[in-house]
Amino acid sequence: MAPPAFSDVAKASNDLLNKDFYHTTATSLEVKSKAANGVSFNVKGKQAHEGATSGSLEAKYVDPKTGTTLTQAWTTANALDSKIELDDSIAKGLKAEFITSFLPTSKSKTAKVNLYFKQTNFNARAFFDVLKGPTANVDAVIGHDGFLVGAEAGYDVQKAAITRYSAAIGYSIPQYTAAITATNNLSVFSASYYHKVNSQVEAGAKASWDSKAGNNVGLEVASKYRLDPTSFAKAKINDRGIAALAYNVLLRPGVTLGLGASVDTQRLQQASHKVGASFTFEA
After folding, report:
1. Residues 209 and 218: beta-carbon distance below 8 Å
2. What per-residue string of b and e applies to 208-246 under the rule 16 or more CB within 10 Å gives b?
3. Pairwise CA distance, residues 178 & 216, whole Å
4. Fewest CB atoms less than 10 Å from the CB: which of 31, 112, 179, 198?
5. Taking a C-beta distance cutoff of 8 angstroms, is the pair 128, 138 a contact?
6. C-alpha atoms less than 13 angstroms from C-alpha of 56 in its C-beta half-sphere
């Protein structure tokens, strides 16, 4: 089995701390459907607490015989995004992505090529921005008996210079994971922990220190409790006193509701608290 990608070395704790907390946007709506010919559609809309509403319309077609996936999206920013994925078509364990974006109003274009290669105990990725730079970002993770070691580097072809580098070590088994990462040219350090206590309870924490910003260490603690097979609740708090609660429930097959709120416990009298809701419909 291949180890996780470099960005996913601490995925379990990051998901527990960040995923399914609905206070970050005032309202979000997602509608998913699939046609008889295999084309799936995904419509997303999001209303921020401050600013305009954003959204996208996406269509995806998957050809399982050739391992080819074609995705086309149109966003409210009037961006036309296209992606072609070739999975195991070029070589076993290799996935290639070709991504383009076009803004008709400004004639702005982007073109990217991404490569993913997985083998037993090895996971490597390469991201190329063809029109900007060009630039390349590569990372790799080696795993053995749950132990993980990974590194990342960025390179600007035009400048002929390394632009970024990071490293990570971790240990991952189904019951718990632990990881230490050093990002931003080994200047930002994070240590995270995730524990699946039982089938109902999950717990995790993350500590971060930016060596260029001072001696203060940021800390987040979160927990998830599955109330029943169709609903769960989450809670977290950080060192700044920001507490967040979330509730997710499957109202009926294909209909999911999420509710969330955050409270600044150090400024209870100020209007710094947030609430949000999420609706997902799937057919």
Report:
1. yes
2. bbbeeeeeeeeebbbbbeeeeeeebbbebbeeeebebbb
3. 22
4. 198
5. no
6. 15
